[in-house]
Design a protein that fits this description.
With 146 residues, the protein is an alpha+beta fold. 18% of the residues lie in helices and 36% in strands. Strands 2, 3, 5, 6 and 7 form a 5-stranded antiparallel β-sheet that branches.
Length: 146
């Protein structure tokens, strides 16, 4: 009976060790988006992990109401270390889309990681990309199209 308990303890310890090792390589990201009107609308944040899916198919997309300070704070857990980029939209009217006008110029504020800007359009993945290793915190300041 003692040997069965001993074997079970060994398997439990091995399992706990494997779980701790699998989480050891995971990283997390905190994205602080600033520049919205306090408690009006929502912020959409999209996370991308390659140039091929940038602004097309996000790895993760989340929405959060704007807080009393005019910002939203997003946390992404269990990310693999690597290169990522973030795009964000201030959805003031909460219709779930980026409203655009003439020549598809955004009517709502938006932003990108590294506060990257593009010339006649969005920035490239390369300009917005940053490295995630363990804990990474970035701040994005919303901007309006000119």
């Amino acid at each position: 009976m003692k040997s069965i308990k001993h074997i079970i303890r060994i398997f439990l310890l091995i399992g706990l060790y494997q779980i701790s090792q699998s989480n050891a390589s995971a990283s997390w990201l905190e994205v602080i988006v600033k520049g919205a009107e306090p408690e009006i609308g929502q912020i959409e944040v999209s996370l991308f992990n390659s140039e091929g899916n940038f602004l097309k198919e996000p790895l993760i997309k989340r929405f959060m109401p704007v807080n009393a300070e005019g910002q939203a704070i997003f946390r992404f857990d269990s990310l693999e270390p690597g290169q990522y980029a973030v795009s964000t939209v201030y959805d003031k009217n909460m219709d779930g889309i980026l409203n655009t006008g003439f020549m598809r110029i955004p009517k709502e504020p938006y932003g990108f990681s590294n506060n990257a800007k593009g010339l006649f359009g969005p920035p490239s993945f390369e300009k917005a990309a940053f490295q995630i290793d363990e804990l990474t915190i970035i701040t994005i300041n919303l901007t309006k199209a000119k």
